[in-house]
């Protein structure tokens, strides 16, 4: 007899809990003065949505459509206010960013960039690990962490296959097809030696993909959640430049901290067989000169990034209504107009390739903004803040640490965007109750939502490196727990001491 899966349990549990909370709505509202009946209705909707997100009872993008049904039905928000959340400017910022990222992938520019970085760091274990993590973090700032990990893992496998004189260990059977990506080796292409270096390399890719994403506003959806909620609830414009001032140093320090932790915990060593030192350089040379498509997409991406960075100084004084989303969409449209081969009518982008867009992420982001509106409208955020302050936790450092630890734990079992969406409005209310800057607690939530290192299901990069067959869940959990502790320390220092310096 097959045991019920997490999804099997979640399908009935979500609606049942929704109904149970609604049936007890009057009693809860009368027993707890700070909680209104609309707030209880919003909690019922949130319970259903979150349970389906966590258990993946249905695909996460499908669950993300539930607010459109539940909020108007229960009177939490009307349908117009609910659906406009899905058209938030931040959603269009990510849409434009995704279009540009796909154009980069289509031309292969991302592979050239990653190989160049790796080829520049030498062949020592620390150097190779840092090179892979630096390339991964850099790419993850601009293209999806999933695409970044999928690019880097085959390159890593090729490098591992060149390192014969490594710490011995049992051989690892790779999934069918993965070994075919390993070239220039006499070894069985579907088996590689299990080594501390290989494990460190795989985990380094997964973790750098997540940490690197905090460097730019489009690098990770929780960053966009912060920007959207700050605009809608605080009237504060956290633009691309403002976020990068804060996030880029955090991404750099975070990547270095994770790299150092992997070196300490795993102690990777490697001695490359003579003549096999430059696998990345050989692959880079094999690519030949940059193609017209690569050069033009690099120029387009550079122009868009320049527009984001200079908007507050050069664009806003002339066109005050132009936002980062405007620039992103303009760049995305331009990708369909910039020619690669005029005779064949080839352009940087075509719609068939653009259909690979992660539409589900955009729906998830919209659902998060709808939840944030519901929390604010019904007073859930204020009630939660009152509850926290009632137990005497009013010190900023303690609140930041509590939020970061809570979000880091939750983001290992549910979507980072969903987690950030639920906690961002609560962070605003808590900050208001103790007189702290709301962006401080919101930034703590956004960063923590991206620091999921323990489980394969936590992030797509974690799942990709685990799917390579090169490491086990206990190995990932053991190393991930140590990296999480270091990550929490980095976040606390960043939001308590660094953020006030750059954002005042």
From TrEMBL:
It is a multi-pass membrane protein. The chain crosses the membrane at residues 86-104, 116-135, 141-161, 197-218, 246-266, 297-319, 325-342, 354-375, 387-410, 417-436, 442-467, 479-499. One of its GO terms (molecular function) is succinate transmembrane transporter activity. It is found in: Membrane. GO terms for cellular component: plasma membrane. Keywords: Membrane, Transmembrane, Transmembrane helix, Transport. InterPro entries: Na/sul_symport_CS (IPR031312), SLC13A/DASS (IPR001898). Its main location: membrane. This is Solute carrier family 13 (Sodium-dependent dicarboxylate transporter), member 2/3/5. It comes from Halorubrum vacuolatum. The lineage of its organism: Archaea, Methanobacteriati, Methanobacteriota, Stenosarchaea group, Halobacteria.
């Amino acid at each position: 007899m097959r045991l019920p899966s997490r999804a099997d349990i979640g399908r009935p549990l979500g609606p049942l809990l929704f109904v149970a909370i609604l049936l007890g709505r009057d009693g809860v509202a009368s027993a707890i003065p700070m909680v209104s009946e609309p707030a209880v209705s919003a909690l019922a909707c949130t319970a259903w949505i979150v349970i389906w997100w966590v258990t993946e009872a249905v695909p996460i993008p499908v669950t993300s459509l539930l607010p459109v049904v539940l909020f108007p039905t229960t009177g939490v928000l009307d349908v117009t206010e609910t659906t406009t959340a899905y058209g938030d400017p931040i959603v269009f910022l990510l849409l434009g960013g995704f279009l540009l990222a796909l154009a980069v992938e289509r031309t292969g520019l991302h592979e050239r960039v990653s190989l160049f970085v790796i080829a520049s760091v030498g062949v020592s274990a620390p150097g190779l690990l840092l090179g892979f993590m630096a390339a991964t973090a850099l790419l993850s700032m601009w293209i999806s962490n999933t695409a970044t990990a999928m690019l880097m893992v085959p390159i890593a496998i090729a490098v591992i296959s060149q390192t014969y004189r490594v710490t011995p260990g049992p051989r690892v059977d790779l999934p069918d097809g993965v070994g075919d990506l390993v070239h220039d080796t006499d070894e069985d292409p579907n088996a590689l030696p299990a080594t501390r270096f290989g494990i460190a390399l795989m985990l380094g890719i997964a973790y750098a993909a997540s940490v690197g994403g905090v460097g730019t506003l489009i690098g990770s959806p929780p960053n966009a959640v912060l920007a959207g909620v700050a605009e809608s609830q605080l009237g504060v414009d956290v633009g691309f430049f403002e976020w990068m001032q804060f996030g880029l140093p955090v991404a750099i320090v975070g990547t270095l901290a994770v790299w150092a932790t992997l070196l300490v915990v795993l102690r990777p060593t490697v001695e490359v067989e003579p003549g096999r030192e430059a696998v990345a350089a050989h692959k880079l040379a094999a690519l030949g000169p940059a193609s017209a498509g690569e050069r033009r997409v690099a120029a387009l991406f550079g122009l868009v990034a320049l527009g984001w960075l200079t908007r507050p100084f050069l664009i806003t004084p002339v066109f005050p209504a132009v936002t980062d989303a405007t620039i992103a969409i303009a760049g995305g449209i331009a990708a369909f107009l910039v020619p690669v081969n005029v005779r064949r009518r080839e352009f940087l982008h075509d719609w068939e390739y653009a259909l690979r867009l992660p539409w589900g992420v955009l729906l998830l982001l919209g659902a998060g903004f709808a939840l944030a509106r519901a929390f604010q409208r019904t007073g859930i955020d204020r009630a939660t803040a009152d509850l926290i302050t009632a137990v005497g936790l009013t010190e900023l450092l303690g609140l930041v640490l509590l939020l970061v630890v809570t979000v880091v734990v939750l983001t290992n079992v549910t979507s980072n965007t969903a987690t950030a969406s639920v906690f961002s409005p609560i962070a605003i209310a808590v900050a208001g109750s103790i007189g702290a800057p709301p962006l401080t607690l919101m930034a703590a939530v956004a960063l923590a939502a991206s620091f999921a290192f323990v489980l394969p299901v936590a992030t797509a990069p974690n799942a990709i490196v685990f799917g390579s067959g090169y490491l086990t869940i206990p190995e990932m959990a053991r190393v991930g727990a140590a990296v999480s502790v270091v990550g929490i320390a980095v976040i606390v220092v960043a939001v308590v001491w660094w953020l006030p310096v750059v954002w005042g």
